[in-house]
Structures are given as structure tokens and as C-alpha cells.
Amino acid sequence: MSVVSSTTITVPATTANLGAGFDCIGAALSLYNEFKFSLLSSSAGENFVISVTGAEAARVSTDESNLLYQAFSKFYEHIGQAPPPVSMEIKLGVPLARGLGSSATAIAGGLLGANILAGEPLSDNEVIELAIAMEGHPDNVVPALIGGCRLAATSENGWEICDIPWCQEIICVVAIPDFELSTKEARSVLPQEVSRADAIFNTAHLGLLLRGLETGNPQWLKAALQDKLHQPYRQSLIKGYAEVETATKNAGAYGMVISGAGPTLLALTDTSHSLDVVAAMATAWQNCGVKAEVRSLSLDTQGARVMKHN
Fold first, then answer.
1. Tens of each residue's pLDDT in the chain, 310 residues
2. Are residues 136 and 182 in the same domain?
3. Nearest CA-CA partner of 261 in 279, 289, 234
4. Residue 1: inside a domain, yes or no?
């Protein structure tokens, strides 16, 4: 095997939960971060160098706290080696702290980059397991790594990853506001326990969601996007949520959910209504005094792309 001294990893954004699939379902979207890793000469005297470009580059740390470098180092710790001196070039395309899996892209990118430079000692499944352990839950890192819409569940032997068929007519519209919401804050408002009725409600709607995504059945999708485990508690953290949801449905969308922990809002619609939904979400938030970038995105079916440079 030839030695790889440089590699570029391109990782898609993700949207997690899709309403009733709290902490277990995620989908990859056609929005990307790019990470280039190049081995440095040990004589250079530096363990790592990080450079960042993109709209929010100034907000990304370039020291040891950088999540990409932490994932890179975690990989080498896992295989019992010291991380080699490395240059990391980050090109940002996924907004930070908006519920679109920016941290998952860094974890996936760091682990994949390290695996390539180390000669690929870990299998794809082992990388997935390590990524889930770092992130703490599977809903973002799994689709970031392997693409598509995925359901993850624990088993006796680790994690079982299930592909969720996605009807091609279903379009994702993301409305990304100009304010942030940390995952920690979004989790802090959730109750420690829920009623049996709410648990049954979510079980039924998760089943309906899976069939709705597969078939594109409008009535199933309109009902399936409801949730009682996390969204009712998080809505108050997102200014204008109710107004945007009403406008989204009036424009012909199946419904709207919080993307991940938020504050990005995700509408599912069909191809014939996507432009109307984009306009409606932007206008509704603008009327609430919130500036938002609203984009129509497709499902990314490939996941992280690896390019090797010898």
C-alpha cells in the first residue's frame, strides 16, 4: 500500500430527529464542510497547524480545542499511536451552532482523515462506532459518514444502522436564522421523564414517519412530523417558531420540524411547492424581526467523500 501524505475529506451537513425520531434518525443534506490534512515534516517543529476559511472562519479555534483536531487525536489514541505532525485546512460551508451537524462534520472529518493517514487500520464500521462514542448519539454522525437517511439503534454488539428509504419527491427546505442555540441549552429544557401517552404517541408517529418518507404519502407525512418528546419544549427558545410553522403549512409544506437542537427550522415539502415554502419561511421570520437564510436542499446519498493525495 502506497503511503498517503495528504487527503481531503468532504462531509455533508445533517438534520437530526425529523420530529418523532428524536436522537435516533438523521439525514445528510447537500451542504458541505471540507477538510484537508497534510503530513508535516517532524523537523518543522510544530505538532499541528490549522487554517480556516469561510463565512464564520474567525469563530473557529485553531488551537488544541479545535474539534477536528480533537477527533484526529482521538483516532490515534484509539489505535495506540501518537498523532503525527499535521496541517489542517478547513473550508466552512455548514453554519455553526445552528442544528445542521457542524460538530458532526468535524468529528467525521477528523476520524476519516486520521484513518487515511494512518494507513486505514480501522474499518468503516469501527470509524462509525468511534464517531458515535465521541458525539454521544448517532443521529448526526452516522448520516454524515455514510449519507442518506439513517436510523440507529443499539444492539448487543454495538449499533445497528438502518437505511431509511426516501421518496425522491420529498424536498428539504432549511431556514437558518442569524442567531444560535447551543445543544446544551436545547437539551436543558427537556423533561427527565415523559408520560406513557407521549411515549405511545411518538412510537406511532415514528412508524408513520418511516412509511411517509418511503412513499411520499402527503397525509402520512403531515401527521408524522408531530412530536411530543422534544419539540414542544424547545419551541419557546426559537423566536417566531409558531409564525414560521403556520406560514410553512399555508405554503403547501407537509409540515415543519426543528433541525437537530435548532434553531434552524426544517420543512418537508414536494417539488411543486418548494419555492413557495422557501419564500414563506423567509418572509414569516422577517416579519418577526429575524433575518434568515432559507435554502432548498436535497438528500445527500453519498456521505463523506475521501480524496487521497500521494
1. 457 899 999 999 999 999 999 999 999 999 999 999 999 987 666 789 999 999 899 999 999 999 999 999 999 999 999 999 999 999 999 999 898 999 999 999 999 999 999 999 999 999 999 999 999 889 999 999 999 999 999 988 889 999 999 999 999 999 999 988 888 888 899 999 999 999 999 999 999 999 999 999 999 999 999 999 999 999 999 999 999 999 999 999 999 999 998 999 999 999 999 999 999 999 999 999 999 999 999 999 999 999 998 7
2. no
3. 234
4. no
Q: What is the DSSP string of 102-121?
A: HHHHHHHHHHHHHHHHTT--
Same domain, 244 and 114: no
Residues 273 and 234 both lie in one domain = yes
Strand 86-91 to 48-53 pairing: parallel
Give the 3-state secondary structure of residue 5.
coil
Bridge partner residues of 89 (DSSP): 36, 51
Question: What pTM was computed for the model?
Answer: 0.94
Domains held by the chain: number: 2
CA dihedral 208, 209, 215, 219 (to 10 degrees): 70
Task: Calculate the CA 39 to chain-centre distance.
Answer: 28
Note down the domain range covering 32: 6-164+299-309
Strands 265-270 and 158-163: unpaired
Instruction: Tally helices (H) and strands (E) across the chain.
Output: 10, 11
- Give, in degrees to the nearest 5, the angle at Cα 240 between 58 and 262: 50
Alpha helices in the chain, H assignment, sequence order = 67-78, 102-117, 124-135, 141-146, 183-188, 196-215, 218-224, 231-234, 241-250, 274-287
User: By C-alpha distance, which of 13, 15, 14, 49 is closest to 34?
Assistant: 13
